[in-house]
Amino acid sequence: MPQITVDHSADLDDRLDRAGLAGAVHQAAVDIVAARIPACKTRFRGVGATVVGDGPASLVHVEIALLAGRTEEAKTALAEAVLAALPGHIKGAAGVHLSVEVRDLDPTYRSAVAD
């Protein structure tokens, strides 16, 4: 926890600073919702064609799933911090559609490290 997923349009493959963005999101989770760096897990998924409205567009959507118990204010603050950080990790970010969602994990969530 937290489980972080970054979906991005394929045209950003070479323009997205994955390590830098993951580090920024992890640090924001530590600072704002009391996560621990070793518990932060981020995966990046490039998706093919993306369309916004009636035409092709570049986009990045970050989903952060947390164990329940954080206030709505804390989740909103985390979303705003990550949204503000996103352009700094995309080369030529002008015009890229950005979004962030922070939600609670389902109570059945379990995690382990395999032996």
TrEMBL record:
Protein name per Swiss-Prot or TrEMBL = Isomerase
| Record-annotated membrane-spanning stretches | none
Q: Which InterPro entries match?
A: 5-COMe_2-OHmuconate_Isoase, Tautomerase/MIF_sf
Q: Supply the source organism for this entry.
A: Streptomyces endophyticus
The terms under GO molecular function for this entry are: isomerase activity
- Keywords noted in UniProt: Isomerase
